[in-house]
Amino acid sequence: MSGPSPGDSGSARHAPPGETIILVPGLDGTALLFFRQVPRLARRFNVVSFPLPNEADRTMEQLVAELRVLVDEVAGGKAILCGESFGGALSLSFALAHPERVSGLVILNSFARVPQQRQLWIAPHLLRAVPWGAMPLVRRFTERRMHGPHARAEDLHEFRERSKQIGREGYIRRLEMLRHYDVREQLVEIQAPALFLAGDRDQLLPSVKLAELMSRRVPRGEMHVLEGYGHICLIDRDLDLLDCVGPWWDRVGAV
Predict the structure, then answer these.
(1) Is the pTM of this model over 0.85?
(2) Residue 11: its pLDDT value, please?
(3) Full strand arrangement of the beta sheet holding 46-49
(4) What is the CATH number of the domain that holds 98?
(5) Phi, psi dihedral angles at 114 (to 5 degrees)
(6) Is 14 domain-assigned?
């Protein structure tokens, strides 16, 4: 299986004009891990991705502002946001700041607040102490914690290749942003329909429990458990995100 190619982030649109879905990546920030889902979602939606900047001075508010520019440019001012992990936190923040620009939310293996606060304070220091060139080896030792049993050898290989493009400064900065991120009490303000997806084999986060909390608090929220999937699951060839998102949008999109 080949590695990522230029323009592989999914920023190009792959479907006839219609409802736009913007893919917002997790801590990796590259949007390269959406590669398998882009053509699948494009059977129904106009698909765009939002790679995150590799800069050490960004704030959540700045990312929200940059996402607003993209929504205005590619979706005429309103879009479905699909956020994975950190991208889910960013998508929820965007929905709270700009509710008029969100037609729907798909939140995957994410949170309204990270429960492991101690790790959030320790991890950036550890990452600065480790040579960034050694991170591929570190990921080899931790990947089984990140992936579920559906992940095949070729999926893991693809993950390793694409992860080589993760930028150090942006990755660490996004971890630091989450230290002060907590929108649990604000979830009741989100009026857009929201689908919370959670892998029941997620060993990084208690994703099912977190999705249950968020879906209860968001007025039009609902959840779906991805059985047998871990935290990083969008690269798994067995998972077709459209199978979850399509029927959900059929029910709620016209309301």
Answers:
(1) yes
(2) 43
(3) 46-49, 20-24, 79-84, 102-108, 194-199, 221-226
(4) 3.40.50.1820
(5) -75, 125
(6) no
